[in-house]
Amino acid sequence: MRIGIIGVGAIAEAIVDGLATTEQPGEISLSPRGARTAGALAARYGTVRVEPSNQAVVDRCELVLLTVPPGAITAVLEGLCVPADRVLVSAAAGVSLANLKQLLPNHPQVMRVIPLPAVRAHRGVTVIFPDHRTSKEVFASLGEVLVPVDEDRFEALSAATATLSSQLGLLAAIADWLSGRGLEPAVAEGFVRGMALGLGESLADPGRSLAVLVGDHETPGGINELVRHAWLGPADRARLAAALDQVVARSRGVPHNSLG
Ligand SMILES: NC(=O)C1=CN([C@@H]2O[C@H](COP(=O)(O)OP(=O)(O)OC[C@H]3O[C@@H](n4cnc5c(N)ncnc54)[C@H](OP(=O)(O)O)[C@@H]3O)[C@@H](O)[C@H]2O)C=CC1
């Protein structure tokens, strides 16, 4: 099966890197937009080609991934004829199945996915909704696949991915603090990265829950417990939950200022 990708930016590049390095890579057609990345991918992999238009991608491929910015979805789909026998898989955060279907008069099958950059190394956990055998097979070649029971849970998982830059921002803030204490910035950053990579190893063990891992990294009355209580108390968790609720509300089109 030839896979098409419309919108060749950061996440599309990770997906193509992942797909093209599986044991039996299939053919991939890319849209011309995102020209630099698309051209680089076609040069990198013999199985990848750049098509002359978005429509050419749809015409050549049974399964088409939409990885354009959410704000471009309407313009992209209004400019396309997607026949009923195609499978359209949208990665656009916050664009519901209902919204997508409204823009697809020929009623192709429509799926939503949340791919993460780790698909590049075949270590992603990709969320797919609704369940769809072929889409699952594609993303199973890039790591694990999770199929929630409904779109509300899909939106909640999508909101959770909105914490990724905050998690990295926390590491950057710790490195900045170290620099403020006189450490060379490169030394500070290297140390913090090393700590985080160590955590990655702990996280890879599915036998220990997150709550157990928190305990594993704390001595009662010790310094880890001190810092966690100081800045991750109930009020901080409530602020985090409110921000995530806001992400879900935004994806449902609820204006921010109408939130309690
Ligand atoms: N980055 C991530 O980790 C994740 C992203 N997503 C979703 O994936 C989508 C893409 O995100 P990301 O890769 O980060 O964004 P980027 O901005 O890196 O890439 C978006 C690409 O879409 C292209 N594009 C814009 N308009 C059109 C159009 N009309 N036709 C064809 N291509 C178009 C842009 O082309 P040009 O460069 O020419 O403007 C650009 O190459 C978003 O909807 C996002 O919500 C979902 C999960 C994770």
Automatic annotation (TrEMBL):
**Keywords from the UniProt entry:** NADP
GO process annotations (BP): L-proline biosynthetic process
GO molecular-function terms, A-Z: pyrroline-5-carboxylate reductase activity
UniProt: NADPH binding residues: 54
Domain spans labelled Pyrroline-5-carboxylate reductase catalytic N-terminal: 2-94
Q: Is this entry keyworded Cell cycle?
A: no
In which family does this protein belong, per the annotation?
Belongs to the pyrroline-5-carboxylate reductase family.
Name assigned to this protein: Pyrroline-5-carboxylate reductase
In its UniProt entry, the species of origin is given as Enemella evansiae
